[in-house]
UniProtKB/TrEMBL annotation:
Alphabetical keyword list: 2Fe-2S, FAD, Flavoprotein, Iron, Iron-sulfur, Membrane, Metal-binding, Oxidoreductase, Transmembrane, Transmembrane helix
Domain (FAD-binding FR-type): residue spans on this chain: 223-323
Pfam family, one: Ferric_reduct
Membrane topology (UniProt): Multi-pass membrane protein
Organism: Virgisporangium aliadipatigenens
GO function terms (MF aspect): 2 iron, 2 sulfur cluster binding; flavin adenine dinucleotide binding; metal ion binding; oxidoreductase activity
Location(s), subcellular: Membrane
GO cellular component: membrane
Principal localisation: membrane
Lineage: superkingdom: Bacteria
Spans traversing the lipid bilayer: 21-45, 51-74, 95-115, 127-153, 165-186, 198-218
Record's protein name: Oxidoreductase
């Protein structure tokens, strides 16, 4: 444990408005603007052959808009990701996905009912007649894929599937997207105005451009440019290992302390095996470091990586950084291997800082020697809190946090650890009256 005094250098100037609020406002303003334009175009040029088919077109149009929004949220647009965070963007993507499910079902149902009324035929007869037409068949297949993907995304099914299986099924959404777009093109009856049609397809081009740019072009370019390779492998404990990665021009990689990257090690693991590991040291322009606990075959095998192994890294990602700092002091709370992004944040910290490190036993406190050295250099207060939570040992209850950090309301609080611990800490912070804008917690996971 070391003492707390004054920062080594003045903190950077804080923005007038928190970046997360600006990013959310920009995102939803753009969504609102395009939604308004499309609603006006539909009102002017979207009438169907009867009232039921007009409703079908309405739901089909909004299903496409929801799909556009979903793709935008997972496009990994750097500006949004650094301010909102991949975890929140992914959570929004998931819930919008369920809205998409019901919108697609309503669209299909109204199409069948509308043509059934138009042709004075039974609904099932109309369904098979539509399936015999290329545009109809493509739409039915796209809808079936979306229903299937949404079904395995319900929590009780999702938890029973490995990430690789779930991800493989989820990737079929791109097939549904392709089939749906061809379906739209063949139908060609959404808008009766050429200008409205041009706007619609330009909107699609913008969304697909962002998706391909963020998910394909940018990662490929960065890996070609930086040429990441394993420089060293350092065991930190029996089940924790650090991997040092070097490359070219790392000073131009826009990585910040607290962020994570998605790591692949081609030749050592299968190409689809990827893990999101935080940067456990602040980027210095010469190397990157990840520190991982062996919780699966991929992470367990990291200690056997040969030096010189080629690395494919996506990112950096995440909003767990100092750009969200709103107060001239901070509290860093870590549990278990959640210390890795906290350690990197401590390394770059030049404001009065308190670090609370929760571990089952002192022997589980990985990177402790580094933390103690950094705390001395940064004049930070480091407290290691060992033991299991129970009567007499509940440091993250409101009274426990207040006793450890009496000025907690005047600090930005960064929390990283197991989900249950993080939820308990956030709940206590709110009970202590810490404003939400000062609470920073991020889930480092792919899904």
């Amino acid at each position: 444990m070391t003492g707390l005094s004054q920062p080594m250098s003045p903190p950077a100037a804080r923005p007038i408005a928190p970046p997360v609020m600006l990013a959310r406002a920009a995102l939803w303003a753009a969504v609102g603007f395009h939604l308004l334009v499309v609603e006006v175009m539909f009102a002017l040029y979207g009438t169907g052959k009867n009232g039921i088919l007009t409703a079908a077109k309405f739901f089909g149009l909004h299903a496409a808009l929801l799909m556009m929004l979903q793709l935008t949220l997972i496009a990994r647009i750097p500006w949004l990701d650094r301010r909102i965070g991949m975890d929140r963007l992914t959570a929004w993507h998931r819930w919008i996905g369920f809205s998409l499910l019901w919108t697609v079902v309503l669209h299909g149902s109204f199409v069948v009912l509308g043509y059934s009324a138009l042709d004075d035929a039974a609904p099932w007869t109309t369904f098979f007649a539509l399936a015999a037409v290329p545009a109809g068949l493509l739409g039915i297949c796209a809808a079936a894929i979306i229903v299937g993907i949404a079904s395995v995304s319900f929590r009780f099914l999702r938890r029973r599937l490995s990430y690789e299986v779930w991800h493989g099924i989820h990737m079929c959404v791109y097939l549904a997207l392709l089939l749906g777009m061809v379906h739209q093109f063949l139908e060609g009856t959404t808008f009766s105005s050429p200008v409205a049609t041009l706007y619609w397809w330009a909107l699609w081009a913008l969304v697909l451009g962002a998706l391909v740019g963020g998910r394909v072009i940018l990662p490929l370019w960065r890996n070609h440019y930086h040429q990441f390779r394993v420089a060293a492998v350092v065991p930190e404990s029996d089940d924790v290992v650090s991997v040092h990665v070097t490359g070219r021009h790392l000073d131009r990689l826009p990585a910040r302390a607290g962020q994570f990257m998605i790591w692949r090690f081609p030749g050592h693991n299968r190409w689809w095996q990827a893990n999101p590991f935080s940067l456990s040291a602040a980027p210095n322009g010469r190397s990157l470091r990840l520190t991982a606990k062996a919780v699966g075959s991929t992470s367990a095998g990291l200690r056997h990586l040969p030096v010189g192994t080629r690395v494919f890294a996506e990112g950096p990602y995440g909003a767990f950084t100092s750009i969200h700092q709103t107060k001239p002091a901070r509290l860093l709370i870590a549990g278990g291997v959640g210390i890795t992004p906290v350690r990197s944040l401590l390394e770059e910290s030049y404001v009065p800082t308190v670090v609370l490190y929760r571990v089952p036993d002192l022997r589980d406190a990985v990177l402790l020697a580094e933390l103690e050295a950094l705390a001395r250099e940064r004049n930070a207060l480091l407290r290691v809190l060992p033991g299991r939570t129970g009567p007499g040992n509940a440091p993250f209850e409101p009274q426990g946090l207040y006793a450890l950090v009496p000025d907690i309301q005047h600090r930005d609080v960064y929390v990283c650890g197991p989900p249950r611990m993080t939820e308990a800490v956030v709940k206590s912070l709110k009970a202590l009256g810490v404003p939400g804008i000062q609470i920073h917690a991020e889930r480092f996971a792919l899904a």
